[in-house]
Amino acid sequence: MNWNDLRYFVVLAGEGTLSGAARKLGKDHTTVARRIEALEKDVGARLFDRLGTGWSLTDAGENLVPVATKIEEDVLAFERQARGDETAHGVVRIAVPPVAGRILFAPRLAELLKDQRDLEYEILGSSVIANLARREADVAVRMATPDQSGLIARKLTDIRYAVYAVRGYTATVPEKDWEFCADGRNSFGDYQQGWVWEQLNRQLPMRVKSDDTQTVLAFVAAGYGLGLLPRYLADEDDRLELVTDDVTNELSKPVWLVVHPDIRRSPAVRMVMDALIKATEAIPDRYKC
Q1: Staple partner for 137: which of 130, 180, 208, 259, CB 3.0–4.6 Å?
Q2: For the chain, where are the alpha helices, taking DSSP H only?
């Protein structure tokens, strides 16, 4: 059999139509149909039912999908290893939250640039989620579980949070006068507040809300109340003191690496993804869970 026909099989199984598979493969639909028919002849089984609405897998086809997918992945892995000395070229657009990007990921990404002279970055440092399907970014680091379909996502770790204040705040400010600088990001901010109220056995006034972690830190460091901050950021700031730690990790935030399947095999994108994964592995254990 022609092993290249397996790729046509895997793509058509995923797309469900000749036109969809042809677009993804960069071929015309007659070529796709011809390669599938050749594969069916080689294996001696009908793999698809030809319907008016598309091509539907038969039972035999369903059984072969995971096997064919594994073979395709192994072949691609072989090719990548065989080209282990290839270099990365071009621009990779990376969407990453600004604070995490600067502190956790930039050093490792900078090391990659030193090794790959033809590689360039466009860093999208924003809390707004980039649309990978529209190529607003090639690779994204997200501090929330991805919910967009059609993307490949890998959970890297969970980031720990704790409550902080400027040094001396809890000793000099009467507890009845304490205030809280809140995260203004929807449900996470609401959950933050509820957790803090439970720990302190009382609600605190909130006159500042922000969707930017650096802004929360700035207000806390300036002496305005308490704030819930990531430990990798606040523990390194000598102006702050730990007030209440989240020992059960209830407020930890997930870190996800997300990429569109169409470009994940690009050498440049693969190298960037590897750098982001290694950067996460290098985060001290006290800052993640």
Answers
A1: 130
A2: 5-15, 18-25, 29-43, 59-82, 98-100, 106-115, 169-172, 186-200, 213-221, 231-234, 267-281
pTM of the predicted structure, to 2 decimals: 0.64
Radius of gyration, alpha carbons of the chain: 25
Q: What is the pLDDT of residue 106?
A: 92
For residue 233, the model assigns a pLDDT of: 94
- Give the C-alpha distances (Å, rounded to integers) separating 32 from 11, 57, 200, 258: 10, 15, 64, 29
Residues in the chain: 289
| Rounded CA separation 148/168 (Å) | 44
**188-228 per-position pLDDT tens digit:** 566 677 777 787 777 888 888 888 889 999 999 999 999 98
* Residue showing tokens 């397996």: 6
Measure the CA–CA gap between 153 and 144, rounded to whole angstroms: 11
Token pair in block for residue 180:
């809280």
| Residues facing residue 241 across a β-bridge | 165
Give the whole-angstrom CA distance, residue 232 versus residue 241: 13
Widest Cα–Cα separation across the chain: 83
Say if residue 80's pLDDT is above 80: no
Q: How confident is the model over 133-182, as pLDDT tens digits?
A: 777 888 999 988 888 788 899 999 999 999 999 999 999 999 999 999 88
Q: Does residue 241 have a pLDDT over 90?
A: yes
Q: Cα 117 vs. chain centroid, distance in angstroms? A: 26
Q: Where are the beta strands (DSSP E) in 78-195?
A: 90-95, 119-124, 139-142, 152-159, 161-166, 180-183
CB 91 within 8 A of CB 120: yes
* C-alpha distance across the termini of the chain, in Å: 48
